[in-house]
Amino acid sequence: MSAILIKRATAEAILRQNGWLSTQAERFQDEVLRRSILLRFAPDEVVYHFGDDLGGIYGLVSGVVAVNTAPQSDAPQLIHMGVPGSWTGEDSYLIRQPRRLELRAMTETWVMHLPLDQMAQMTAADPAVIRNFCQNLLRGVDVLIRIIHDLQKQDPERRIASVLQRMTWSSKQVLLTQTEVGTMASASRRQVNAALKRFAENGWLTTSYGSITILNAEALRLFGDEGDR
């Protein structure tokens, strides 16, 4: 299969219109994009590993990226999927410590990379840009709060529904196996299989080998939120 080519102007437009960068002043957007490099990653290729040396930030232009992490003593596990317009990697910039996440392309993926030295140059020229980068950190915290909230639901089917709905932030087609859904929802494969069967009977999704297509994300959200209010 031939690679999908994305023009630089198209990539910049996507990032200007979605996610963290879209909320920043135009002058800051211009500076970030001027200093960034457009990169392509093949399916299953790692953008960066957990524990890698210092590096800059990456903004997802297109494709699907798995976000894996764990305490340093354990192997990274899947916790989330990246959304076009989302950026990550600012930990190295802020505290000068190795990577706390692993990013892996699930499909052909294009990202914009702002190298660490370019971030340092921007900060030297205007220390106030630290606030701009910290705003992206807080967006990541919001995602982690949602992940924790989903995992605190007592009913495994509600956890599974919430995980599947959260995955639609990046695509209606969820490129996960039942085992991976179980990992993200803290549920057994048997529980996942039963939940998917029920959701399919309700017309909320369809399943195929290695992927799940969401037909009604709102129904999943409502089911997942039952009992929260």
Chain-wise SSE layout:
Layout: H1 8-17, H2 19-22, H3 26-35, E1 37-41, E2 46-48, E3 57-62, E4 65-69, E5 77-81, E6 87-88, H4 90-95, E7 102-105, E8 109-114, H5 116-125, H6 129-151, H7 156-167, E9 173-174, H8 178-185, H9 189-201, E10 205-208, E11 211-214, H10 217-224
Count of β-strands: 11
Looking at the structure, the CATH topology of the largest domain is: Jelly Rolls
Helix run count: 10
Task: Give the CA-CA distance, first to last residue.
Answer: 48 Å
Number of domains: 2
Assign a percent range to the helix content: 40-55%
Which shape, going by the Cα principal axes?
globular
Structure described in brief:
The protein is an alpha+beta fold and 229 residues long.
Would you mind describing this structure in some detail?
- The protein is an alpha+beta fold and 229 residues long.
- It folds into two domains: 8-149, Jelly Rolls, CATH 2.60.120.10; 155-224, Arc Repressor Mutant, subunit A.
- The protein has ten helices and eleven strands.
- The strands form three sheets. A four-stranded antiparallel β-sheet has the order 1-8-3-6. It has a four-stranded antiparallel β-sheet with strand order 2-7-4-5.
- β4 (65-69) and β5 (77-81) form a beta hairpin.
- α7 (156-167) packs across α9, α7 runs antiparallel to α10 (217-224) and α8 packs across α9.
- The longest helix has 23 residues, at 129-151.
- The radius of gyration is 18 Å and the shape is globular.
- The model has no long low-confidence stretch (mean pLDDT 88).
